[in-house]
Design a protein that fits this description.
Keywords: DNA-binding. The chain is about 70% helix and about 0% strand. The chain is an all-alpha fold. The chain has two domains: about 70 residues, Multidrug-efflux Transporter Regulator, Chain: A, Domain 2, CATH 1.10.1660.10; about 160 residues, no CATH class. It starts with a helix and ends with a helix. The model has no long low-confidence stretch (mean pLDDT about 90).
């Protein structure tokens, strides 16, 4: 079968087939009298094997080893592929979250987008000073969605930054209480404690209702914070 027909039947372009040949992945078994490449059934089967392994995320070098080295076991490679795929999914999920937050801020132009990106990056910075500055600036900047502040509050471990984030969240609007309440159901005790402390600093009927509901929860620390907050209202 000539290269053009192989390309049509396999969906692999003639250019890619030549690339595979240059790498030694698949070489046509014969040539016509005119010197054209001629692929056998075995060659075509190998092309489909290559494409199947590519669909799993293997590099062409890894595919060559998998097909040609008898002792090349799949287990370690599959484990590595799983790890790489998880990392890629995590990165894509982080990007999707950031895009949704920028969209929620309703940017009017690219300047607003860039400002929102800068603040969101600062909130996730490894520097506590940068996170604190971002928390304080977010009060004057409507481009930071409440959800981003809530996530920052629930994950913050630095005492000073956490205080700045709670202060900013208390001035962010009416949606914060409902979002923070989700943190009360976290399986992580520290997250539940951060959620109730932030709720305690919010005013309004919604925050009060969430604190009252927290009094019936199983976490003694959460119940204690909720009781103290309600006692001062």
């Amino acid at each position: 079968m000539l290269i053009g027909e192989v390309a049509r039947r396999s969906g692999v372009s003639a250019r890619m087939l030549r690339h595979y040949e240059s790498l030694g992945l698949v070489r046509p078994s014969g040539r016509t009298g005119s010197g054209y490449r001629e692929y056998s059934r075995a060659d075509i089967r190998r092309i489909f094997h290559i494409e199947s392994l590519r669909s799993l995320g293997l590099s062409l070098r890894e595919i060559g080893r998998a097909l040609d080295e008898p002792g090349f076991a799949p287990a370690a490679l599959v484990d590595d592929l799983i790890h790489r795929t998880r990392e890629r999914i995590a990165a894509e999920t982080e990007l999707l979250t950031r895009l949704r937050r920028i969209d929620a801020a309703g940017p009017a132009g690219w300047e607003d987008v860039l400002q929102a990106v800068a603040l969101l990056q600062a909130l996730g910075s490894k520097s506590a000073d940068a996170r604190q500055r971002a928390a304080l600036s977010s009060v004057q900047d409507a481009s930071v969605p409440v959800e981003a502040l809530v996530d920052a509050v629930l994950s913050e471990t630095d005492t000073n930054v956490a205080g700045a984030l709670r202060w900013a969240l208390a001035r962010s609007g009416d949606d914060a209480a409902a979002l923070l309440a989700r943190g009360l159901d976290s399986p992580v005790a520290e997250v539940r404690a951060r959620a109730v402390r932030a709720l305690a600093e919010l005013s309004g009927a919604e925050a009060t209702a969430r604190l009252r509901h927290a009094l019936d929860g199983p976490d003694a620390v959460v119940r204690g914070y909720a009781a103290l907050a309600l006692g001062s209202r």
